[in-house]
Amino acid sequence: MGSIVVLPNCQAFAPATILDYGKVSVKRFFLPCCRVPVPSHYEAVRAEIIRCLREERLRRKLSNYVVAQNSGVSESMLSLVERGRRNPTMELLLRIADGIGVDLADVTKQARATVLKKNPKQKKSLPADIAKKIEI
Asked: I need a surface site. Which of 25, 75, 93, 131 has the fewest CB within 10 A?
């Protein structure tokens, strides 16, 4: 077994220790006092952005193939993102939005407003300057 390493201002840990970031969590009571939205807010906004992009793709009657050709994203990845099987990066969302022909900033603003309309309590956890920009 490896030896214990002690760093200044750090807890002791074994070099062979593997951190499981899935088990790292933020205490719920900490978030409101720091005016940071709860993680579920971001997940809801992400899901709403994806829903809006898919809805716009269908409204414009674009197939996954056409969007894939326009954006450089594979059809399978596009399908996985739309079905919620993959968590898209910002670059991937930008590519998909460009492939559809919409502005991601507008879609994001619309998605945030929709999420806050569904759950107005989350507006209290947003910083005041951001909350004012989002009109409900």
From this structure: 25
Instruction: Answer for the pair 72, 100: CB distance below 8 angstroms, yes or no.
Output: no
Distance CA 94, CA 96 (A): 5
Position 135 scores a pLDDT of 52
- H helices of 22-127, in order, are 30-33, 39-59, 64-71, 75-82, 90-100, 104-118
Which 8-state DSSP code applies to residue 5?
Answer: B
The confidence score (pLDDT) of residue 129 equals 59
Q: How far is 55 from 49, CA to CA, in rounded Å? A: 10
**Matching residue, tokens 């209290």:** 124
What is the C-alpha separation between 64 and 59, in angstroms, rounded?
Answer: 13
**134, 94 contact by CB (below 8 A):** no
Q: Which residues of the chain have pLDDT under 50?
A: 1-7, 10-16, 19, 26-27, 29-32, 136
Cα torsion 24, 29, 34, 40: sign: positive
- Residues 93, 47: contact at Cβ < 8 Å? no
Side chain identity at residue 10, one-letter code: C
